[in-house]
From TrEMBL, chains A, B:
InterPro entries: AB_hydrolase_fold. Keywords: Hydrolase. The keyword Protein transport does not apply. Coiled coil: none annotated. This is Dienelactone hydrolase. Residues 229-239 have a biased composition (Basic and acidic residues). Residues 213-239 are annotated as: Disordered. The keyword Zinc does not apply. GO terms for molecular function: hydrolase activity.
Amino acid sequence: MDITSERRLDDGILEREFTLGEIPGTLWTSGSEPAPLILVAHNNGLPRREPRLVARARHSASHGYAVATIDAPGCGDRPRSAAAEQARADLRRAMKAGEPVDEIFESLVGPLVDDAVPEWRTALDALLELPEISGPVGYSGWTALGIRLAVADPRIAAAGLFAGGYVPRAVREEARQMTVPLLFLLQWDDEGNPRQRALDLFDAFGSKEKTLHANPGGHLGTPAFESEDGSRFYDRHLR
Amino acid sequence: MDITSERRLDDGILEREFTLGEIPGTLWTSGSEPAPLILVAHNNGLPRREPRLVARARHSASHGYAVATIDAPGCGDRPRSAAAEQARADLRRAMKAGEPVDEIFESLVGPLVDDAVPEWRTALDALLELPEISGPVGYSGWTALGIRLAVADPRIAAAGLFAGGYVPRAVREEARQMTVPLLFLLQWDDEGNPRQRALDLFDAFGSKEKTLHANPGGHLGTPAFESEDGSRFYDRHLR
């Protein structure tokens, strides 16, 4: 892992940019004790510099966690595949025309998840070697990636999933294999995330401890108190 | 209000039994400062001495709230009406026979709610005159009573509702008129509370701030951390 830059933010958090081969990432830490780690990812591969992701990451860092994110293939500044660009164009056209979008989402999001998981695991290998990170490891964010990662990697000890965006069929099937405690956060009127599909997914999760939090409003309307609830969820399972 | 007995519990909480005319009640307080009040009620009129209700009440009292409950008409030691006794017998018979129970619940729970609301308001009048209670007032528990009470009485500032038991049709309609912040706690596999009906009720609540918390398991399986989440909900709205 190469640290390419670092700066101290005004709330005292240390923000470091790193690369791992082709993978660019960011690590936020506070305090001097080795800390549990939270991996923060964004629905459908939005860039890791997206302000809402950064705000969530800094919130968790201010609660004493080491927090890391990467731009997986096709995310942020990384080159997008021709197939993904085509799928995005198809998606815009279909949405404008009011046509069904499930198959297009499948062709866009399925490969994004497939390609992201090995790189997140590579990042996790490297992060857990840092002296400032003690584990255990939590996951926060993009539901589809979180399911695949928690099922594939036994180092993930708790998952906070945000029910935004499309979950590919294969990943929905894997939800039954999840065993880690999870907090599933749903916006009741999320325009991009049909409510019944999210409730069915919550029902399918195999985890014995799973909690659904739902609030009214659209995709961007999550109330601020849910950040605090999220911190307490991680505190229960990562401390 | 006549205080009929009092005792200091081992966690320092003062538990006082009172009567208000025919209405028996219990008040739990801790500390010496005037405190906000939480009214705690039980689904379908179970007795106020029921251990789970007492545990919830003491939990809130230990967080600095004054907590009160009453036995409304037909609850606890108070005489049951012949109609309610008949409805309970009909209910047992119908459940055993696997017959529909909606109409029987309607005839049992409808009058229980109708009769309870004026007595809870009488109790609220008296409780708010005590120097140890400053308001504002929260409500916790029985969903059907909580809806009716929050819609009828502007002194209720926040409602934590447990989706257990049958909500009469008239009360379900009133849910749209609710405006106070609410936390709606659902057991995902509650044998006595059809999930879809609870989700429809959550959807119907008129309150701008409404949060659903759902956890797997039956009616009695609510995880302990939900008590803490409940306290933080009240802290946001009653402090």
